[in-house]
Specification:
single chain; 345 residues; mainly beta; OB fold (Dihydrolipoamide Acetyltransferase, E2P); 3 domains; five-stranded mixed β-barrel; 7 helices
């Protein structure tokens, strides 16, 4: 994308910086305490952001900078945008979607929760009768990018958060994930960690079609980074990503090895099945520093064979791919932990 990178990710409220906030209006309201970070950003919320040029550590979610590469005629049904509420009217909310000649309109009946002035909202474009006002809905995952757009698709037409039907390659060429076709020659990649957990053990079972969400767009890359994880595709449902089956940092649990990556000393685990016998949508991983005897470990595959069970302890959470970071180290299994839980109001 022009001017740097676009990426869709989870931006927790406690990690927001003033220079990465949605727009000047938001900053002004924040200064006079008419809005708070806690009300605008909640744990599990998907927030498209842009990495600014010449500074890989500075981000922005200002719509005018996010979509500076888009023209109004590229706003097609199914495209997903970040809008900032400019005003709340009787029939809905008027949104700033980053274009001077076009505004978004979010009808009251299309809001998945009440909105206030200054709030950033991720929305999906719906068919409109006028070119100056774009009808949108915050129930993003209820539809995909329109068929016409898919037939004439170009890489720089897509935005993070857009949902699209993809066709996986018939024969996976690598074990790290699945290459997919989106239409009109545009291709993408779904890493194994972004596949539904139930097919990660055998990626040949992904089927002939897969519903994916755009996670990352990069100007000089021929591929889109996508996710097919059901909890991530359900963009408007923050509750799908705000907790990890009730597990907290410090909890102990027994996990089963489902995959290993010897080159990076990565071990992937499945969690215990749910009460109804289903495989959880949340999985677990462990890095070299968290593996038992990590300084002496040789062959990961022999130490952690597929199907073996290990006592693990929760160390952290990865929200974007719905994964728990665990350790098998004996010293950490015995160590006393102080844990905390993030509460959404």
């Amino acid at each position: 994308m022009l001017g740097g990178y676009l990426r869709s990710s989870l931006l927790p409220a406690q990690h927001c910086r003033r220079d990465s906030l949605p727009c000047e209006k938001f900053t002004e309201l924040l200064k006079v305490e008419k809005i708070s970070l806690e009300s605008a950003f909640v744990v599990g919320q998907m927030v498209p952001f842009r990495v600014l040029p010449h500074n890989s550590q500075k981000l922005t979610c200002d719509p005018s900078k996010l979509y500076s590469h888009l023209s109004p005629n590229r706003i097609v049904p199914g495209l997903v945008l970040l809008g900032v509420v400019e005003s709340v009217e009787e029939k809905g909310a008027v949104l700033d979607i980053g274009m001077q000649s076009v505004q978004g309109f979010l009808p009251t009946g299309k809001q998945n929760k009440p909105v206030d002035v200054g709030h950033p909202i991720i929305v999906r474009v719906e068919p409109s009768k006028t070119s100056r006002v774009v009808a949108v809905t915050s129930y993003v995952e209820q539809d995909n990018l329109c068929l016409e757009a898919c037939e004439n698709l170009e890489l720089n037409h897509l935005t993070p958060g857009t949902i699209i039907d993809c066709e996986p390659d018939a024969e996976p060429s690598i074990t790290a994930g699945v290459y997919v076709a989106l239409g009109n020659g545009v291709r993408g990649f779904v890493a194994k960690s972004h596949l539904p957990p139930r097919v990660r053990g055998d990626i040949t079972k992904v089927g002939k079609a897969m519903r994916c969400v755009v996670m990352f767009c990069q100007q000089n890359s021929p591929l889109l980074v996508l996710s097919a994880h059901p909890d991530v595709v359900a963009i408007s449902k923050t509750e799908k990503r705000s907790s990890f089956l009730g597990y907290s940092i410090g909890d102990r649990l027994k996990c089963k090895v489902i995959d290993t990556v010897p080159s990076t000393f990565l071990v992937c685990f499945s969690l215990p099945t749910t009460e109804d016998g289903k495989t959880p949508l949340v999985s677990a991983i462990s890095y070299k520093k968290y593996l038992n005897n990590h300084e002496e470990i040789g062959e990961v595959e022999s130490t952690y064979p597929i199907g073996s069970e290990h006592m693990c302890r929760v160390m952290n959470f990865r929200y974007a791919d719905r994964c728990i970071v665990v350790t098998t180290r004996k010293d950490l299994l015995k160590q006393k932990f102080v844990s905390y839980k993030v509460r959404n109001e």
